[in-house]
Amino acid sequence: MESKDFSAPEQTAKQAVSFYEKHKKIYIRDVKGWWDTWRWVFVWFTQILFYGLPWLQWNERQAVLLHLVERKFYFFGLVLWPQDVFYLALLLIISAYALFLFTAVAGRLFCGYACPQTVYSEIFMWVENRIEGDRSARQKLDRAPFSGRKFGIKAMKHAVWLLISLWTGFTLVAYFTPVSELLAALPFGLSGWELFWVFFYGGFCYMQAGFLREQVCKYMCPYARFQGVMFDPDTLIITYDPERGEPRGARKKGGDAKLARQGDCVDCGLCVVVCPTGIDIRKGTQYECIGCGACIDACDPVMDKLGLPRGLIRYTTENALARHFSPSDVVRHILRPRIIVYTVILLAITAASIWSLATRIPLKVDVIRDRSILAREVEDGGIENIYNLKIMNTTETPKRYLLSVSGLSGAEIAGERQVEVGSAENHEVTVVVRVPPESGNKGANTIHFEIKAAGDDNIVVREKASFLFP
Q1: Between vectors from CA 244 to CA 242 and to CA 247, what angle results, nearest 5°?
Q2: What is the mean pLDDT of residues 78-106?
Q3: Domain range spanning residue 233?
Q4: Which range has highest mean pLDDT (255-259, 371-375, 435-439)?
Q5: What does the pLDDT read at residue 260?
């Protein structure tokens, strides 16, 4: 047996291993097509809503406003208060179920068409293409040595980006402070917080849409990480058909691809250079894919030029590729139990939310018993308790409310029994309730306050309270 010498240490080569991938700038080629058109439809739709809503007026006020100072949320004719946080919870639940449903049906539709990161990246890249030129021109400009021309072009691009970013930050703050007040305060009258948030949001828009771009989708966005658990083999995703496309390779003019045992993919690489996240869709499903369809728009014209059918890259499912489903089979498999359950739950919660808002009483009342004076006896022997009533008129017209009390025999309100509350205002009133001494038991007794709008029997609220006997 051969002996081994353990006296001398073995010489091993040391090699540094990096756990971080070096970032490479992606130069995206502009592409036109069906899916690109739809992306720009959503860009226009979302941005008209975002930039336009703060300027829309309703009843001589801003139509959509989360007024932090007044602690009210105005949404057209609806006025919501902090006590209406229940509707925020419903909105979040509806959004979550909609996300589950759309993702289970067709993958990352939100990411590819309506996500703010995608939308503003599209806008910033459009500016970049118009100022610096197409993909090859941008690459050439970046490789060129520093010069006055290069500085001027770059400065113009970043100036436009900064203007868009600052206007975006200003618009976002206008949802929390009335836009009329913000305009009147420009340029030096903005408060410290307003100025901070304009630059904070504007800075993030400039950084993420101008520089980070695909890195947000690949490394920062949590949705990219957990989307895999919402996919299944019957989810519509953008997929390359390897059975049809492989083996790929350039075609010779006049050559017969079938005789050469060659697939339909000519390995032109257009699907890669148009991808906003820089992936190669031909390598299979990847979490970086945002489902924008740019690779489809790039591939279909190539197939047209070669006289081949479109759809080498297309929206389809894993099962459809593996089992060669027809379009009707694909649709039938999309309508699976999981989708039906999501749809039923989403429709039920949405309907319940709409019904709750439609039947919502536009009056809120908080009853707080004065704890400094638990109970006191008056001259005629009656017992009095003092309460503070906070009455919130959630309509946009002034209201007069009638106050009454019940629950104990002979209970009555001593003093003023009606109160005027302005539109969308919160009014606090002190109410003294007097009860005959024989009407209750020692300790706490239950009573009810009734607050009813004068001339409108549909606006009435009953609130429970405790009346103390000494």
Answers
A1: 65
A2: 89
A3: 22-360
A4: 435-439
A5: 63
How many structural domains are present in the chain? 2
DSSP 288-352: T-----HHHHHHHHHHHHHT--S-SEEEE-HHHHHHT--HHHHHHHHS-HHHHHHHHHHHHHHHH
Edge-to-edge strands, sheet with 78-80: 64-67, 72-75, 78-80
Tokens for 33?
């097509």
**What's the CA angle centered on 443, arms 438 and 445, to 5 degrees?**
70
Q: Do 148 and 280 sit in the same domain of this protein? A: yes
Q: List, in sequence order, the alpha helices (H) in 114-178.
A: 116-132, 135-143, 148-173
* CATH of residue 384: 2.60.40.10
Distances (CA, A) of 253 to 43, 54, 250, 257, 267: 41, 59, 10, 10, 15
Decide if 1 is inside a domain. no
How far is CA 187 from each of CA 62, 68, 174, 191, 313, rounded to the nearest angstrom?
Answer: 21, 21, 15, 11, 51
Reported pTM: 0.84
User: Strand pairing partners for 446?
Assistant: 466
User: Do the bridges between strand 418-421 and strand 443-453 make them parallel or antiparallel, or are there none, so unpaired?
Assistant: unpaired
Amino acid at 7: S
Name the residue among 88, 90, 106 with its Cα closest to residue 345: 90
Determine the Cα–Cα distance for residues 83 and 463; give it in Å rounded to an integer.
Answer: 15
**453: Cβ contacts below 8 Å, ≥ 6 apart:** 363, 399, 400, 401, 402, 459, 460
Task: Tell me the DSSP string of 226-291.
Answer: HGGGG--TTS-EEEE-HHHHPSP-PPPTT--TTTTT--S-----HHHHT-TT---GGG---TT---
Q: What's the pLDDT band for 449 if we cut at 50, 70, 90?
A: very high
Cα–Cα distance measured from residue 187 to residue 397, given in angstroms and rounded to the nearest whole number? 35
Query: Which of 304, 331, 360 represents a domain boundary (last residue)?
Result: 360
